[in-house]
């Protein structure tokens, strides 16, 4: 036993007031980093504490950090009923459930072994030719020379290379020889003979001829090497070396090419070795390993039948019976025996029946027309032509199944993958499919022996990862599994243990793993290995919380928590929590009683003997091969053996399924083959008593399941009150309409769908949760209503009903429930809520209660799952009663306490998988215990002696956690993502770490693309495979290994602020929950009458239908699907089953049996035509209305011609009778047609010019077109929508109120005021229950905004108007609100957009995160942030290809002292300010000013501002003070408007401008916003194309002699036009491959190898470089290469000078950051002004106006200096440059500073200071002055 100290406050998970389910206010403290076990009686509340409380909160908090899109794929767990949980890390549940359905998921994928194998194969696999099977490996000149000099020693050699003899010009042999002579080659090798090119050629040449490069001695290594190198280059990697004397030859290739067969094979890339990648998946089955096809076992299920008896099943019913007649008629014609069993027919006759007389290529109708037999296959071919009919598709589905893929034979991979294999130490070679099909324990042996070069550490690391994971699987008893075993075929216990090894292999740390009885299905022998795995997971730095009953696991716990004392309502209390050794002193704990031996399960005094038995002979299935097994009848038989030995195969696959098949009952799964099965006549019913729920409906309850409720209802019906009211027994059934509550249909609750939260179950408002109507509840039985009886526990009900005469029909079944340990269940508790163990015992009780049932065979599969020691004792007493009642029990079990109580034991083994499948021992437990071959015998022997086995005691001995200093570091090995150069480093955990370096040096690649991506991916990989299949899988980064990585959360600073419809409310998700609040708690008001809508009666709706029908035919539809995505085939199937023939699908009438294939990802609305009538009677109208409203759930639609009217019994105006749609969250979405205002389409603004979207093919396309048009129009010509007044919603949505407040009251309020509105809301009990989960979500998000000082923002404010600082803080606040522990937070420059004062507040918040036990990794350039950091990692030394290395690590002082660090140099010696030594003058007659009067946009308070022209001006101030509103929102639109309408009057329709007057605009030539928006949205846009330098480069290539000779123009060298581009990839350089169920992949184009151009274009070279080579150059390399061309050089040098020299000329624009895009735009402007400067100065003195918003985002200090130089250059050329900036270096460089403030929001919006920096620092009211002054003091 371990001696743990009690937890400290610093490292503890603290639970206060847990009340989930039956927990009674549990307070608990659990030290983190330990192995915890929670135990207690079944039903005591263990899972409620571990899963429903602790795990639910840990998972919920981490999932909240994901994007809203990702969150929708995870089950939103209910917020637990608990007062508080503190110190909780991200939680992962390792449960026993297996919900995976897809066959793409295998043991190899979920353990990540496949991921490592796909990386290992390209490094370690050997290749061979698929034709000649000779080895293939790329040769080098050196290896070729080495081999040739040894193979042809002392011989004279001819070095040749192949050349094609013809091309598009179809040259003659003479022309070809002439071509060779021009190239300087005079000899060729043809048919072993040497021909001269200067002699007459033969009349015909082969397609390829070998040109002799040199004749050289094999001993002359230097000359031979030179000849080989040249030949390889000219022969495109292929050469041939020939012995000049005997003509022996040897081909060589420098590529993946078989030189003998002249055959290329695909190079080994990771994608080739993944069946989940388009490159590696079998093209036939797409990586599934199986294809869907006809299942002949279903079509001909009984081959013992004859043709006359109907051996072909589909021919025996319906219209297909005609085919049976055809078969018989044609069989007689061909003299085929109609009465011979099909299995005994000759093979030719069997083929005739199946394939018919159809000739190859013959059409099916020709066979029919010529009266020949079309065959069963032909029948199904004909059905395939009719699949547009629903019933045909249903029919086909009955006879289809998945069959092994005929192309890959189930291997899943394409043939080219099989060219590669791994060679083991013993000479054995295995391809990847062979590796996947080998059992884990044997595969580990093979891989361990693979030879790996000592110097190849990466390959060794990958191989170790694979073998370690295989070892983990072997250690938890799963060595018999194969990697290709589909996850969906695993048992719950196997899935849990596989997931456990996955979590260990993921190497996550600081995570809470919650496990549900991991010992289930595990043999006692393997428990020690399981505990070893769990301890290893703990020692990695994690906390394990295990719900468990296994004694060895309980004893091994570091910390034990016991819940009790009883079950159900008698449990839920904390009995013990502490070191496991201390529980033995507790006298009130059932767990302690069994651990100490105070209670035990005794050995039975005698064994029962069987007189008869079931005999299986020659049984084979899976690993069982031809065994004989006897199952004695009338006794308790236990089948045991190690995990995977074949127990379930024997009982389920062989015994159970063959029994069913012998009885003629349907068998869904494969039944094994047997020679015979005897003794079946002695067996009654065969029942598999599993742990599945007895019922799926909430109306299924224990008392109903046992049949006792029928008798209880009879008692109620016999009471005087019931008789007086005329109530029969049916009135007391909640499954009958006679007496149950109509609103909840007898459920007692209503399930409310909450789109953004977990669904809520609320007590029915009509019956108050009592299920019945009031008059039924007034009937009392001895003072108790029907509801009161259902609320009784079984124990209470037994005492209650014993007082009634003839009570045994009620008490007998209830007593069986008590006997099986379920006395705590309530009679009315839904059986769907029971645990697996409770469900199984309920079924047992049902069997016990049925005293009249015949002797049955009851099969159990590990019935002790989830059972406490005491529950097992109860279960065994029930087993004895069942046997005594004449039943036979066959139980699969590992628990030695159960095995020792059996009458007969069958032990399968001896080992698992291929080494199992045999009966090792059979007999009484005493006999089996003596078997020497049995792995169970030692443990059974100890159980019979009533003492623990020594192996169990050894495994259960607690071992203290292994704690080392390595536990607190993240170790990265071999990182190569993007430009990282195979770096390895250590990042300390639980500290504040800054990653810095030059822009483009690789900071984000390290922080986000590696550490964050891998941290989040590993967490997702540890989650359930079911959840993972719905989430976009993150790619594994290019890194060898990462250790010690906790779950990661990214807080990025992406500059995008959403589209034109994004608002503060939407990006903070406040609006999501406001929509939900209004949909669930809002009241619809009639827009016309301003009165709340009310319920309408059925009679009123029917009267409306009848009235309408008097004027003509009307149709009544009921809605089935409303705006939901999917195929919706089940809707049509439902319509056909219920005899409805017409559906209204997306506005079109369609026949139900011809239902079309709908687009899965588009929203669809489907109504069913319930009926149509003309001049209906009252009865007809009433019946039609009732039916339509029942189907449509109180909503229907009345259609007269083209007019449509909504009918509703719930939402109608009492004044004008107008009906309304039920409230739905989409109704309040201005991004959806369901909610937006039709006039402004949800933008809230209208424009003078209309926007045409009628040509759009989809709603998304229409939105994008409109948004783009609105952006181009500009906000300055917009005005509020006249219909919605800017609210953005339609009339109906605007007239929904929550307590007199429309939703606009909230959206127009500031975050601060919205909080007050929320606090003023008061709801009744029903409303409070609905709002319980919604209001906290809204308050939390509003609180985040207040926490970061953004509560002044109004919720309706467009996101596009937010400053960068505001947008960043909104994202940051939302992420920091999760209050997690042990997480790695990765932040991307959190200080950008923040004023220096706010910066310090933010850093304080980040410090607090670290103090709470989290790790912080911040990509940052800010000096103050670096000063706060515990460690700095500096990357460099340059950017792009010149970066990607770790230059220095350490504290700020250590970085300053580093000679290699550019960061250190700038920190140690900051530049002087101003860098030019002086500022431009602001006085004098030549200084002109731009003046704006009365600016009042947003928070601007009638501001007057002046900006000097031709100067560098910087606008600064607190974040949110109004800088962007003044310049970007007011000044720039004013300038553009002034230039647009010079000399013209403003439009009368235009809204008044947000300012009074603008002067000085006449001195501005043009206005340019140099922002950070992308320079292009496709890969066709590149830096070279944007700055126009590519045009000059193309002109240069077009002017080359070779181009002119071929007639090539500049367009030939464009990858955007045909002619010169590669037509295979259309100039993109990559090809998109799409696969079903997989994300699309982009692969390099195999035709052009990613170059974008065709071969002819690449023949043109300038100074040895093709156009593709130029596009791969960096800007720095290209500037040097084109030094002789000023037009090209000028633009490229500007890129270098702006710090972008690392960018490739052809780099796709979408891959550029916002800062890089902004600087490219600056370069474009500089290039333009440089070219036009002289002309402009001659014409006039007007300059351009440039506005840059925070251009230092993402820039290193060195890059900021380059940026400052560019700004000065623009200003020196006479332009006005205005910069919105917080960076003090830029502010200190300004000629003029304009500070807006003094605070944010309403407290800002004024000019605080204006003038040179030296004057600004003197203004006391300036928030910037204190921080700016130290920089100026350096002058």
Structural notes for this entry:
- The chain is globular.
- It starts with 11 loop residues before the first strand and ends with a helix.
- The strands form 17 sheets. A six-stranded mixed β-sheet has the order 5-20-21-3-22-23. Strands 10-9-11-8-12-13 form a six-stranded antiparallel β-sheet, with helices on one face. A six-stranded mixed β-sheet has the order 28-31-32-26-33-34.
- Helix 17 packs antiparallel against helix 35 (1003-1022), helix 38 (1070-1081) packs antiparallel against helix 47 (1334-1347) and helix 60 (1686-1697) crosses helix 61.
- With 1835 residues, the chain is of the alpha/beta class.
- The protein is built from 65 helices and 65 strands.
List the helices and strands and how they pair.
Blueprint: E1 12-18, E2 26-31, E3 35-39, H1 46-63, H2 68-71, E4 82-86, E5 91-94, H3 107-110, H4 113-124, E6 126-128, E7 135-136, H5 141-151, E8 156-164, H6 173-182, E9 187-190, E10 193-196, E11 208-217, H7 221-234, E12 238-243, E13 249-253, E14 257-258, E15 263-264, E16 290-294, H8 296-299, H9 321-333, H10 347-355, H11 364-369, H12 375-384, H13 390-398, E17 400-404, E18 420-423, E19 429-430, H14 432-436, H15 440-448, H16 457-475, H17 492-506, E20 512-516, H18 527-539, E21 543-547, H19 551-556, E22 559-564, E23 573-578, H20 590-596, E24 613-621, E25 624-632, E26 636-641, H21 647-662, E27 676-678, E28 686-688, H22 702-705, H23 708-717, H24 720-724, E29 749-752, E30 760-763, H25 774-777, H26 786-790, H27 794-801, H28 808-819, H29 836-849, E31 857-861, H30 869-884, E32 888-892, H31 896-899, E33 904-909, E34 918-923, H32 925-929, H33 937-944, H34 950-956, E35 969-975, E36 983-988, E37 992-997, H35 1003-1022, H36 1025-1028, E38 1039-1043, E39 1048-1051, H37 1064-1067, H38 1070-1081, E40 1083-1084, H39 1098-1109, E41 1114-1125, ...
Parallel strand pairs: 3-21, 3-22, 5-20, 20-21, 26-32, 26-33, 28-31, 31-32, 37-52, 37-53, 39-51, 51-52, 57-63, 57-64, 59-62, 62-63
Antiparallel strand pairs: 1-2, 1-4, 6-7, 6-18, 8-11, 8-12, 9-10, 9-11, 12-13, 14-15, 16-17, 18-19, 22-23, 24-25, 24-27, 29-30, 33-34, 35-36, 35-38, 40-49, 41-44, 41-45, 42-43, 42-44, 45-46, 47-48, 49-50, 53-54, 55-56, 55-58, 60-61, 64-65
Helix pairs in contact: 4-16, 5-7, 10-12, 15-16, 16-17, 17-18, 17-35, 18-34, 23-28, 27-28, 28-29, 29-30, 38-47, 39-41, 45-47, 47-48, 55-60, 59-60, 60-61, 61-62
């Amino acid at each position: 036993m371990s001696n743990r100290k009690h937890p400290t406050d610093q490292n503890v998970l603290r639970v206060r007031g847990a009340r989930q389910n039956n927990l009674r206010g549990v307070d608990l403290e659990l030290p983190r980093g330990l192995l915890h076990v929670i135990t207690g009686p079944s039903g005591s509340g263990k899972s409620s504490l571990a899963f429903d409380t602790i795990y639910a909160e840990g998972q919920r908090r981490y999932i909240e950090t994901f994007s809203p899109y990702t969150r929708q794929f995870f089950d939103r767990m209910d917020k637990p009923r608990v007062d508080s949980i503190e110190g909780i890390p991200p939680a992962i549940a390792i449960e026993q459930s297996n919900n995976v359905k897809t066959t793409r998921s295998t043991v190899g994928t979920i353990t990540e072994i496949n991921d490592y194998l796909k990386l290992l194969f390209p490094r370690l696999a050997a290749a061979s030719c698929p034709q000649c099977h000779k080895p293939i490996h790329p040769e080098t000149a050196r290896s070729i020379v080495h081999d040739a000099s040894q193979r042809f020693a002392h011989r004279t050699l001819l070095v040749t290379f192949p050349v094609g003899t013809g091309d598009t010009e179809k040259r003659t042999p003479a022309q070809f020889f002439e071509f060779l002579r021009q190239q300087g080659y005079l000899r060729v090798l043809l048919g072993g003979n040497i021909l001269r090119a200067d002699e007459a050629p033969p009349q015909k040449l082969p397609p390829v001829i070998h040109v002799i490069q040199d004749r050289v001695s094999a001993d002359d290594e230097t000359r031979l090497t030179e000849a080989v190198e040249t030949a390889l280059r000219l022969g495109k990697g292929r050469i041939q070396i020939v012995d000049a004397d005997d003509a022996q030859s040897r081909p060589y290739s420098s590529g993946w090419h078989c030189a003998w067969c002249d055959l290329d094979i695909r190079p080994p890339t990771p994608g080739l070795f993944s069946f989940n990648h388009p490159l590696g998946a079998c093209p036939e089955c797409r990586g599934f390993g199986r294809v869907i096809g006809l299942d002949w076992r279903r079509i001909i299920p009984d081959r013992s039948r004859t043709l006359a008896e109907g051996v072909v099943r589909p021919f025996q019913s319906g219209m297909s019976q005609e085919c049976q007649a055809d078969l018989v008629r044609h069989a007689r014609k061909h003299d085929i025996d109609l009465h011979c069993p099909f299995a005994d027919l000759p093979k030719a006759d069997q083929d005739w029946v199946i394939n018919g007389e159809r000739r190859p290529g013959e059409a099916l109708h020709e066979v029919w027309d010529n009266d020949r037999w079309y065959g069963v296959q032909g029948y199904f071919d004909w059905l395939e032509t009719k699949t547009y009919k629903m019933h045909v598709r249903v029919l086909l589905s009955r006879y289809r199944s998945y069959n092994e893929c005929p192309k890959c034979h189930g291997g899943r991979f394409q043939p080219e993958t099989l060219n590669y294999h791994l060679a083991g130490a013993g000479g054995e070679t295995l391809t990847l499919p062979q590796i996947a099909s080998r059992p884990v324990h044997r595969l580990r042996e093979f891989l361990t022996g693979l030879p790996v070069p000592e110097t190849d550490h990466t390959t060794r690391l990958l191989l170790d990862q694979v073998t370690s994971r295989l070892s983990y699987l072997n250690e938890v008893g799963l060595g018999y599994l194969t990697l290709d075993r589909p996850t969906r075929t695993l048992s719950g216990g196997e899935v849990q243990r596989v997931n456990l090894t996955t979590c260990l292999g993921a190497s996550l740390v600081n995570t809470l793993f919650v496990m549900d009885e991991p010992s289930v299905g595990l043999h006692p022998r393997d428990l020690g290995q399981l505990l070893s795995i769990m301890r290893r997971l703990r020692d990695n730095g994690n906390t394990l919380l295990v719900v468990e009953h296994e004694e060895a696991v309980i004893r091994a716990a570091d910390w034990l928590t016991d819940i009790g004392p009883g079950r159900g309502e008698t449990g839920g209390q904390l009995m013990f929590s502490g070191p496991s050794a201390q529980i033995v002193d507790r006298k009130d704990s059932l767990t302690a009683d069994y651990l100490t031996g105070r209670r035990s399960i005794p050995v039975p005094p005698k064994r029962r003997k069987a007189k008869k038995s079931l005999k299986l002979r020659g049984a084979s299935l899976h690993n069982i091969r031809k065994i004989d097994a006897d199952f004695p009848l009338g006794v308790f038989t236990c089948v045991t053996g190690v995990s995977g030995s074949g127990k379930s195969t024997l009982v389920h696959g062989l015994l159970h399924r063959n029994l069913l098949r012998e009885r003629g009952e349907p068998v869904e799964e494969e039944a094994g083959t047997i020679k015979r099965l005897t003794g079946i006549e002695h067996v009654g019913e065969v029942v598999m008593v599993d742990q599945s729920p007895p019922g799926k409906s909430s109306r299924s309850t224990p008392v109903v399941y046992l049949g006792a409720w029928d008798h209880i209802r009879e008692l109620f019906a016999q009471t005087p009150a019931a008789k007086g009211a005329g109530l029969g027994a049916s009135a007391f059934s909640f499954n009958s309409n006679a007496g149950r509550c109509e609103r909840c249909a007898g459920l007692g609750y209503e399930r409310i769908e909450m789109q953004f939260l977990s669904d809520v179950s609320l007590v029915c408002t009509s019956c108050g949760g009592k299920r019945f109507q009031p008059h039924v509840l007034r009937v009392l039985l001895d003072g108790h209503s029907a509801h009161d009886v259902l609320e009784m526990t079984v124990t209470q009900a037994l005492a209650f009903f014993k007082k009634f005469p003839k009570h045994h029909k009620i008490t007998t079944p209830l007593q069986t429930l008590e006997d099986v340990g379920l006395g705590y269940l309530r009679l009315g508790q839904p059986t769907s809520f029971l645990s697996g163990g409770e469900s199984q015992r309920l079924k047992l009780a049902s069997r016990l209660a049925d005293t009249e049932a015949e002797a049955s065979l009851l099969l159990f599969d590990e019935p002790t799952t989830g059972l406490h020691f005491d529950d097992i004792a109860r279960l065994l007493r029930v087993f004895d009663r069942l046997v005594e009642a004449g039943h036979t029990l066959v139980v699969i079990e590992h628990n030695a306490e159960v095995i020792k109580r059996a009458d007969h034991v069958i032990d399968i083994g001896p080992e698992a998988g291929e080494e199992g499948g045999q009966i090792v021992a059979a007999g009484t437990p005493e006999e089996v215990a003596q078997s020497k071959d049995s792995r169970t015998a030692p443990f059974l022997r100890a159980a019979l002696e009533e003492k623990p086995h020594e192996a169990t005691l050894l495994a259960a001995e607690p071992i203290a956690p292994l704690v080392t200093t390595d536990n607190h570091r993240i170790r990265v090995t071999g990182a190569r993502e993007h430009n990282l150069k195979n770096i390895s480093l250590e990042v300390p955990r639980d500290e504040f770490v800054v990653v810095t370096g030059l822009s483009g040096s690789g900071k984000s690649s390290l922080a986000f693309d590696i550490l964050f991506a891998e941290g989040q991916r590993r967490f997702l990989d540890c989650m359930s495979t079911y959840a993972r299949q719905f989430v976009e899988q993150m790619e594994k980064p290019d890194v060898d290994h990462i250790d010690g990585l906790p779950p990661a959360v990214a807080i990025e600073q992406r500059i995008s602020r959403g589209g034109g419809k994004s608002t503060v409310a939407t990006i903070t998700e406040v609006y999501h929950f406001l929509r939900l609040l209004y949909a669930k708690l809002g009241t619809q008001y009639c827009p016309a009458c301003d009165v709340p809508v009310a319920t309408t009666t059925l009679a009123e709706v029917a009267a409306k239908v009848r009235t309408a029908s008097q004027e003509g035919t009307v149709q009544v539809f009921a809605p089935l699907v409303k705006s939901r995505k999917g195929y919706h085939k089940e809707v049509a199937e439902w319509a056909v089953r219920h005899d409805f023939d017409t559906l209204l699908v997306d506005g079109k009438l369609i026949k139900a049996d011809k239902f079309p294939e709908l687009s899965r990802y588009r929203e669809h609305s489907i109504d069913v035509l319930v009926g149509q009538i003309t001049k209906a009677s009252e009865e007809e109208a009433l019946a039609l209305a009732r039916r339509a409203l029942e189907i449509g759930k109180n909503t229907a639609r009345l259609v007269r011609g083209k007019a449509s009217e909504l009918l509703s019994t719930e939402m109608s105006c009492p004044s004008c009778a107008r009906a309304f749609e039920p409230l739905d969250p989409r109704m309040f979405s201005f991004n959806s047609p369901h909610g937006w205002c039709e006039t402004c389409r949800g933008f809230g603004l209208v424009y003078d010019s209309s926007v045409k979207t009628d040509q759009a093919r989809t709603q998304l396309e229409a939105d994008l077109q409109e948004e783009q048009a609105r952006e181009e129009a500009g906000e300055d010509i917009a005005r509020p929508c006249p219909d919605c007044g800017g609210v953005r919603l339609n009339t109906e949505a605007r007239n929904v109120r929550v307590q007199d407040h429309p939703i606009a009251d909230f959206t127009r309020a500031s975050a601060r005021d919205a909080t007050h509105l929320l606090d003023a809301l008061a709801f009744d009990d029903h409303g409070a229950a609905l709002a319980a989960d919604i209001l906290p979500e809204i308050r939390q998000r509003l609180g985040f905004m207040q926490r970061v000082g953004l509560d002044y923002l109004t919720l309706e404010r467009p996101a596009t108007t937010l400053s960068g600082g505001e947008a960043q803080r909104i994202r940051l606040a939302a992420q920091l609100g999760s209050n997690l522990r042990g997480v790695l937070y990765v932040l991307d420059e959190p200080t950008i957009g923040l004023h220096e004062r706010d910066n310090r507040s933010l850093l304080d918040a980040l410090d607090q995160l670290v103090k709470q036990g989290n790790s912080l990794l911040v990509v940052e350039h800010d000096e103050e942030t670096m000063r706060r950091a515990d460690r700095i990692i500096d990357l460099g030394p340059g950017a792009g290809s010149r970066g990607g290395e770790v230059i220095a690590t350490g504290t700020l002082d250590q970085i300053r002292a580093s000679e290699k660090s550019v960061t250190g140099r700038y920190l140690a010696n900051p530049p002087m300010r101003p860098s030019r030594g002086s500022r431009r003058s602001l006085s004098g007659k030549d200084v002109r000013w731009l003046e704006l009067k009365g600016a009042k946009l947003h928070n601007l308070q009638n501001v007057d501002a002046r900006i000097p022209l031709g100067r560098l001006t910087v606008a600064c101030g607190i974040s949110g003070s109004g800088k962007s509103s003044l310049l970007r929102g007011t000044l720039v639109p004013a300038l553009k408007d002034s230039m647009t309408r010079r000399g013209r009057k403003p439009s009368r329709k235009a809204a008044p401008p947000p300012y009074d007057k603008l002067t000085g605009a006449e001195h501005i030539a043009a206005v340019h916003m140099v922002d950070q928006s992308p320079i292009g949205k496709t890969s066709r846009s590149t830096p070279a194309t944007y700055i126009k330098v590519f045009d000059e480069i193309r002109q240069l290539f077009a002017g080359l002699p070779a181009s002119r000779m071929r007639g090539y123009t500049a367009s030939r060298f464009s990858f955007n036009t045909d002619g010169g581009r590669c037509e295979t990839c259309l100039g993109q350089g990559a090809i998109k491959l799409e696969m079903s169920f997989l994300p699309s992949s982009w692969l390099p184009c195999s035709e052009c190898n990613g170059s974008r151009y065709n071969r002819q274009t690449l023949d043109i070279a300038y100074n040895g470089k093709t156009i593709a080579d130029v596009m791969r150059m960096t800007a720095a390399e290209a500037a040097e290469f084109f030094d002789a061309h000023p037009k090209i050089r000028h633009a490229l040098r500007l890129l270098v000078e702006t710090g972008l020299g690392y960018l490739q000329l052809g780099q796709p624009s979408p891959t550029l950051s916002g800062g890089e895009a902004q600087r490219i735009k600056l370069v474009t402007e500089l290039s333009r002004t440089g070219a036009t400067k002289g002309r402009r100065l001659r014409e006039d003195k007007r300059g351009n106006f440039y506005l840059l918003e925070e251009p230092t985002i993402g820039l290193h200090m060195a890059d900021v200096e380059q940026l400052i130089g560019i700004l000065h250059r623009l200003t020196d050329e006479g332009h006005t440059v205005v910069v919105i900036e917080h960076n003090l270096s830029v502010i200190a460089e300004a000629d003029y500073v304009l500070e807006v403030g003094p605070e944010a929001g309403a407290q800002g919006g004024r000019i605080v200071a204006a003038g040179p920096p030296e004057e600004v620092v003197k203004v006391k009211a300036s928030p910037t002055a204190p921080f700016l002054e130290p920089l100026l003091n350096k002058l």
